[in-house]
């Protein structure tokens, strides 16, 4: 409640000048400052008493307010009643405050009404609050509006709170009015309302996520941007800043989050620190993550510990992850349990991950179930995977479904795999499409393959591009193959005649090849050879061959043979033939036949017949028969 009325003021005190030649200690300075305040108040009280005895009603009112502020209710009451009887509205307001403090709210409301009718904004605010506490909302709104319209910050805030509780859109106007008049909580709540309104159109403001047994990620809301690339302060940020500057710890937390998202880490850290020192556990936790990201894990642990001891489950999870990384599994488990005790389901999930790493499958299943039953979607997915690995397909499916319906992209993809394994391709495709729409790379690949199988090349290309862009080597290879099939025939080039232009399909082949895709490596080699770039072709063929590609080994042999290195070519053909390449076996048969090693040639010819394909088998059979005749001649 408001203690001071319209005419009551606080009095400033001056400083005492130190006597020359003496130097005061800090403690002495503080004592003297306190003495100065007490002396000033005593002087002012004496002045007011003299004026009151002389019949000055304003002095009587101010004296009563001074004694009320000091807590001297018995001394204040007669002065306030006397001034009120003379029609002083400030005294009537303060008399209401005094009676409210004594435990007489109804009598207090009567005097507030007197003052409010006389035009006291402070009394109208107090009366409005009293009416609301009594459940009389129409009267509360009337008096709070009277106070707010007179420019009273507390009245504007209380009116905004009442209207917001009803869902009235006018609440923002009055919250803004209170904030503009310096009301700290109003500034914070206005910022939150603007923030939520922004995020309805552009994403949700998030707290930092809990770490999956090894880390955590930060998330926050950012401001709007200028065309020059420098982010502008949103209106919400400006109000957070105003509230934080007035000591609002939650505003400081949100301001730090916005600044961190924008990359202003130094200022973000300052606001997190301010908020954390004021006792905001979430700010201490966020400061810990900021320090961890900067490489200062020791100080990060200090702030996480402080936050965890104040009941922040996210900080407890972070401490658990930190100790798990250091191999201190018992300590990690203790912090994960502390996170659970704080109501953070990530504690059970992380504890399950820790058990999986230690091979404690039964305990892992127990903790996954606890987190999954609490609605943790990734725990539900992990539980389903665990059950599937144990052969319990029937038990896994409902957990995959629960996780997928809760938004787990991995679970949607896993359902696709589950139904594909049963031969239910249409159902599998629906889950793949759902996961692909959420950005799952492997799901997009599966949709692309399915669309290719159905002949829908345009849709196949779209999904393959998504998957390839997400880093799938197989998708890059298949996309390149689709584009390759559309290319017009290229003119032939002599070996050594290099043509530098590369098509889009070759770029995708190269992307897949650099990711270790063996068929793509062979194809890049073939395209390089077609351009006349022998060195590039040999490099890719060799890379593929050394990774186990029989086609790569065969093509490398062809390239070496054309360059006159038949002995080395034979080495690669041997590797290819041993891996089941029929053409390589036929080439070896011809090599040995030309050398006069007929028996060895016949052996490789027999191998080529068995490996095929049909035209190779036919040629190899004729060569084998000819060698047999030559040997028997």
What do these coordinates show?
The protein has 633 residues and is mainly alpha-helical. Helix content is 74%, strand content 0%. It has 34 helices and no strands. The protein has helices at residues 26-53, 57-70, 73-85, 89-102, 105-117, 121-133, 137-149, 153-166, 171-180, 184-202, 235-245, 249-262, 265-277, 281-293, 297-309, 313-325, 329-341, 346-357, 361-373, 377-389, 393-405, 409-421, 425-437, 441-454, 457-469, 473-486, 504-514, 518-531, 534-546, 550-562, 566-578, 582-595, 598-611, 614-632.
Question: Could you provide a short overview of the structure?
Answer:
This protein is mostly helical. 74% of the residues lie in helices and 0% in strands. It has helices at residues 26-53, 57-70, 73-85, 89-102, 105-117, 121-133, 137-149, 153-166, 171-180, 184-202, 235-245, 249-262, 265-277, 281-293, 297-309, 313-325, 329-341, 346-357, 361-373, 377-389, 393-405, 409-421, 425-437, 441-454, 457-469, 473-486, 504-514, 518-531, 534-546, 550-562, 566-578, 582-595, 598-611, 614-632.
Brief descriptors of the model:
single chain, 633 residues, mainly alpha
Indicate the mean pLDDT: 86
Radius of gyration: 40 Å
Q: Please report the distance between the alpha carbons of the first and last residues.
A: 122 Å
Sheet with the most strands, sense and barrel status: none
How much β-strand is present in the residues? under 5%
- Helix count from the secondary structure assignment: 34
Based on helices, strands and strand pairing, what is the structural class?
A: mainly alpha
- Fraction in helix: over 70%
Q: What general outline do the C-alpha atoms trace?
A: elongated
| Poorly predicted runs | 1-26, 203-207, 209-230, 493-498
DSSP strand tally: 0
């Amino acid at each position: 409640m408001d203690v001071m009325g319209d005419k009551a003021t606080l009095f400033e005190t001056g400083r005492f000048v130190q006597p020359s030649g003496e130097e005061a200690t800090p403690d002495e300075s503080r004592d003297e400052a306190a003495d100065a305040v007490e002396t000033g108040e005593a002087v002012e009280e004496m002045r007011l008493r003299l004026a009151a005895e002389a019949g000055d009603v304003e002095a009587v009112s101010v004296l009563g307010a001074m004694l009320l502020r000091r807590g001297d209710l018995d001394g204040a009451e007669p002065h306030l009643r006397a001034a009120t009887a003379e029609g002083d509205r400030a005294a009537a307001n303060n008399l209401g405050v005094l009676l409210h403090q004594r435990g007489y709210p109804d009598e207090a409301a009567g005097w507030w009404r007197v003052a409010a009718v006389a035009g006291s904004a402070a009394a109208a605010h107090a009366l409005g609050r009293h009416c609301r506490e009594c459940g009389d909302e129409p009267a509360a709104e009337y008096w709070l509006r009277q106070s707010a319209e007179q420019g009273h910050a507390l009245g504007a805030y209380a009116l905004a709170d009442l209207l917001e509780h009803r869902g009235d859109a006018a609440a923002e106007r009055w919250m803004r009015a209170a904030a503009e008049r310096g009301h700290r909580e109003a500034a914070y709540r206005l910022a939150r309302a603007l923030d939520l309104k922004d995020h309805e159109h552009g994403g949700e403001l998030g707290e930092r996520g809990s770490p999956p047994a090894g880390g955590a990620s930060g998330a926050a809301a950012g401001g709007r941007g200028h065309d020059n690339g420098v982010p502008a302060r949103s209106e919400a940020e400006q109000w957070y800043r105003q509230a934080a500057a007035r000591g609002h710890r939650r505003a400081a937390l949100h301001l730090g989050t916005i600044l961190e998202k924008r990359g202003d880490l130094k200022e973000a850290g300052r606001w997190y620190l301010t908020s954390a020192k004021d006792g905001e556990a979430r700010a201490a936790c966020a400061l810990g993550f900021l320090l961890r990201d900067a490489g200062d894990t020791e100080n990060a642990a200090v702030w996480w510990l402080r936050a965890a001891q104040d009941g922040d489950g996210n900080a407890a999870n972070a401490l658990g992850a930190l100790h798990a990384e250091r191999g201190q599994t018992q300590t990690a488990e203790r912090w994960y349990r502390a996170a659970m005790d704080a109501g953070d389901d990530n504690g059970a999930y992380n504890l399950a991950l820790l058990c999986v790493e230690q091979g404690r499958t039964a305990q892992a299943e127990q903790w996954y179930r606890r987190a999954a039953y609490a609605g943790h979607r990734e725990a539900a997915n992990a539980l389903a995977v665990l059950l599937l690995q144990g052969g319990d397909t029937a038990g896994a499916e409902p957990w995959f479904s629960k996780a997928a319906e809760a938004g787990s992209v991995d679970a949607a993809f896993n359902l696709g795999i589950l139904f594909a394994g049963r031969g239910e391709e249409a159902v599998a495709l629906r889950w793949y499409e759902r996961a692909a729409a959420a950005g799952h790379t492997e799901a997009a690949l599966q949709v692309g393959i399915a669309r290719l199988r159905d002949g829908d090349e345009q849709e196949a290309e779209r999904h393959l591009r998504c998957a390839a862009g997400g880093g799938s080597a197989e998708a890059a290879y298949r996309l390149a193959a689709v584009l390759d099939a559309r290319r017009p025939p290229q003119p032939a080039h002599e070996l050594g005649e290099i043509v530098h232009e590369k098509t889009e399909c070759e770029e995708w082949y190269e992307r897949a090849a650099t990711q270790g895709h063996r068929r793509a490596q062979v194809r890049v080699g073939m395209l390089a050879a077609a351009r006349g770039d022998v060195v590039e072709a040999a490099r890719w063929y060799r890379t593929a061959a050394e990774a186990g590609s029989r086609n790569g080994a065969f093509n490398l042999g062809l390239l070496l043979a054309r360059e006159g290195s038949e002995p080395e070519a034979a080495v690669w053909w041997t590797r290819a033939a041993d891996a089941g390449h029929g053409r390589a076996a036929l080439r070896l048969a011809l090599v040995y036949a030309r050398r006069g090693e007929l028996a060895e040639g016949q052996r490789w010819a027999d191998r080529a017949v068995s490996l095929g394909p049909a035209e190779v088998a036919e040629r190899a059979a004729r060569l084998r028969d000819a060698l047999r005749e030559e040997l028997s001649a």
